[in-house]
Design brief:
The chain contains six helices and 14 strands. The protein has 225 residues and is of the alpha/beta class. The strands form two sheets. Strands 6-5-4-3-2-1-14 form a seven-stranded mixed β-sheet, with helices on one face. Strands 7-8-9-10-11-12-13 form a seven-stranded mixed β-sheet. It binds nickel (II) ion and manganese (II) ion. Manganese (II) ion (MN) binds next to helix 1.
């Protein structure tokens, strides 16, 4: 499973030759100006919630690629009205293909589009393929519901927001890492805007002192898990 960081909370995940794109917010992110949304690959676009910093480029990329949008019912319906292809799920439900599965799990946050349209309840995804699983928490506080994930899934890595203010911060992400029983964490949702600016070296140290590893990917780079 190859994971590529496109800035903020946007990741590409390549599994079995399929390209999953999570929460595309690229054209509005000056830090991601080197990423070209007109060439980015997507067979599926997974959307955690409707906030602008997670959906800005969904339409542009879905129109060009014909990707299937996987999200909650309200978000898929919103894009369906724009003639974009989608598959709705809801909390606890799993989208399954021969190449991967993606379970929509709880997040504590809010979800609305910039035009005020209700964006359903926010979520995260547990993506599984080839005996590897990654938990994409989405925007969320640390929540005891995270304890449910390791009851069914042994996680290889977790993608957690660490920027504080709108989501959990570093200290709570360490707690989240304990709850999901996964010590390999990839950080997101930091430094894009002033309210979520953090000291990434300090964040890494906080994780290592807890016996965990925090990976901060440079935008445009990938890791294999
Ligand atoms: Ni949000
Ligand atoms: Mn956000």
């Amino acid at each position: 499973m190859k994971i590529t960081f496109y800035g903020h909370s946007c990741f590409g995940i390549e599994v079995n030759g399929k390209h999953l794109l999570i929460d595309p917010f690229i054209s509005g992110n000056p830090l991601a100006s080197a990423i070209n949304i007109n060439t980015i690959k997507a067979d599926y676009i997974l959307v955690t919630h409707a906030h602008q910093d997670h959906v800005l480029d969904v339409e542009t990329i879905a129109e060009r690629t014909g990707a299937t949008i996987i999200s909650n019912y309200e978000i898929v319906s919103y894009y369906g009205a724009k003639e974009l292809k989608g598959h709705p799920v809801n909390h606890g439900g799993t989208f399954k293909t021969a190449d991967f599965s993606a379970k929509y799990v709880n997040a504590i946050h809010t979800s609305s589009f910039t035009d005020g349209t209700y964006g359903g309840q926010p979520g995260g995804f547990v993506i599984t393929a080839k005996e590897k699983s990654v938990y994409v928490a989405g925007d969320t506080a640390v929540t005891m519901d995270m304890k449910l994930i390791p009851m069914t899934t042994k996680l290889t890595a977790s993608i957690f927001p660490i920027g504080d203010n709108f989501t959990m911060g570093v200290e709570d992400a360490v707690i989240a890492s304990n709850l999901v029983e996964c010590n390999q964490v990839i950080g997101c949702h930091f430094n894009t805007f002033p309210p979520i600016a953090i000291d990434t070296e300090k964040a890494k140290k906080t994780f290592s002192e807890a016996g965990k590893e925090l990976t901060i990917l440079e935008i445009g780079t990938s890791i294999e898990i």
